[in-house]
Fold this sequence. Notes:
With 300 residues, the chain is α/β, with parallel strands linked by helices. The chain is built from 14 helices and 5 strands. The longest helix is centred in the C-terminal third of the chain and has 23 residues, at 196-218.
Amino acid sequence: MYAFIVGSPRSGTTLLANLLNRHPEIGVRYEPYYVWERYFPLRSDDILTPDDATPRISRYIAKNFENYKKKTGYRLIIDKSPRSSLRIPFINQIFPGAKWIHIIRDGRDATLSIYKRWQLMDDIAQGKGLSKGGRAYLADRLSYEPFRSDKLRFLWHEARPLLKHGQLLSRLRWNGAPGWGPRFSGYQQALKTHDRLGFCACQWLECIQAVEADIRKCGITDIQTVYFEDLIKNGADVLGSLLDFLECRNFKVDCENITLHADNTGKWKTGLAERQQNLLQTILLPKLKELGYESNNGNT
Length: 300
C-alpha cells in the first residue's frame, strides 16, 4: 500500500513524515525526485499530468517503489514530496489506490519559513561548482536515503547537469538564479511581478489550490487533511486518527519523547516587518479565511 503526503513546503510535511515513520509497518521516502523526475530533469515547471504518465514512465516509477517496498519490508510506503502537490493527477494515474494526506499550515508562517529557505539557497547557488552550502544540502539529502544504490541515483540526478552545464540541477531549475521549492504554472511571471517574499506566498497559495482542485478533479476520497497547528498541539490524537485512516491500527506512536513545539505558531508577527505583513495579507487573506485562520493571528 502507498500513501502520499502533500502540501506547501515548510508546512510540516517532514515533521509529520518523521512521526509516522516511527510506526514499525511504515517506511517514508523523503522527496525522491530522482524517481519522479527521472524523465523530466529540465522541465520548465514542476507540473506533471496524466499524459506524462506514459506506460514506460509509469512502469519505471511503480517498479522503483515496489522494489523499495520489498527491500525495506514495510507494509506501507509513504512518499513525502511537496512538489507532488502540483502533480496529483499524474501520481493518481500510476497509483490509483493510494491514500493521501494534505497538511496545511498558516500561510504567513509557512511563507516566512519558505523565505528563509530561499535565503539559504542563495549560498548554495553561488558559483558554478559545489559551494559549502551545496555540499551541506547534498549531505542532508543523502542522509534520507537508506540504500547505497538510491544515494547514487540521487547524486547522479542532481550532479549530472554539473558535468554537462556547469551547474547543479537545483540551480538550473531556476535558470541559473537562486531558487527553491515548487515551480507552479506561471511562476516565471510571478517572479517578475512579486518580490521574493510575495513569490514565496504564491508558492504556498498555489500548492494548496492545486491540491484542492486536483483532488476534486480526480475524484479522490481516500484523503485526510491535517492542520500543522493541530498536529503540534494535539499530536497523539492527530496521529491516532491518521493511523486509523492508514489502516495501521494496534499501535500508538509515542509522542512523549518528541518535541513538537506547541507554541510554533504566529512567528510571522515578529519575523516580518509591518510592510511585509501587509503584503502577505493582501495575497493570502482570502484563502486564510477560507481555511479557518483569523486575519490577525496564526491559529486555527
